[in-house]
Amino acid sequence: MEIFRRWWSRLWDGLKLDNWRKSVRSPGAGFGRCLLCLEPIAARLICAGCERDLPWRGSQNRGAIGSAAPRFATFSYAFPIRQLIAQAKFSDGVGIASLLGQLMAENPPETDLAGFVVCALPIAYARHVQRGYNQAWLLAQAVARGLGLVLLPAPVLRRTHTRPQRELGRRARYRNLRGAFRASPAVAGQRILLIDDVLTTGATFHCATRALLRAGAAQVVAWACASVEAG
Ligand SMILES: [Zn+2]
User: Fold this and answer.
1) Distance, CA 101 to ligand 1 centroid (Å)?
2) What's the gap in Å between 39 CA and the centre of ligand 1?
3) Contacts of 104 (CB under 8 A, 6+ apart)
4) Which one of 33, 75, 156, 157 is at 20 to 30 Å from 182 when CA atoms are compared?
5) Confidence band of 168 (pLDDT split at 50, 70, 90)
6) For the chain, counts of helices (H) and of strands (E)
């Protein structure tokens, strides 16, 4: 029975992945139909069934990851969240980024966020220009709207250009980002909810958090759409 269940779930994921590729190839498709199973739907980009099947981390896993700093993630970095996040990095992925942010806001971490202000984890200026937008900013916008929190203007936290983190090992990631973030004094005394798309080793969150605290932020809570850490 278990084998059958696993076989079925893999087949189902395969079908969804296929639909997903079709939807991505023909922009505009997907609207009026679920991006993943192509069921006709009225609102959103995915249907309620596919939303239920997303790789949610579950209420206990929306709790802090790692003990040093409060870090949260709504999803595991698995199908189809992995594909949705990749798509959110392209200019036709703005709707997808908003959907992901909306799903985050509807499933917030189990921590008191009253009085927090929302801040997006920045990408380097050159990458921003190349891509046209920062997907973390789109997530942050949807999170702030969904939770009724204030969104800090983007220049509050800046990032200089560094080597892509992807190519580096854990230690090198920290070294690479040393001094890469600068926070403005506008964050002084603020409790900040720092938003990013993917939590990998936590090096980016760590370095951005340090910059915010150095500039006088009272508290920082990091919240990613998805985490590669198991759970
Ligand atoms: Zn669906």
Assistant:
1) 18
2) 6
3) 74, 139, 142, 143, 146, 195, 223, 225
4) 75
5) confident
6) 9, 8
Q: What is the CA(82)–ligand 1 centre distance, in A?
A: 16
Q: Say how many Å lie between the CA of residue 194 and the centre of ligand 1.
A: 30
Helix (H, G, I), strand (E, B) or coil at 173: helix
CA angle centred on 57, ends 221 and 172, rounded to 5°: 55
Domains of the chain: 1-53 (no CATH), 55-227 (3.40.50)
203 Cα to the center of ligand 1, angstroms: 34
Q: Which of 17-26, 110-119, 126-135 has the lowest mean pLDDT?
A: 17-26
pLDDT greater than 60 at residue 97: yes
**pLDDT digits 0-9 by tens, 172-184:** 888 888 889 999 9
What pLDDT does 164 receive?
Answer: 82
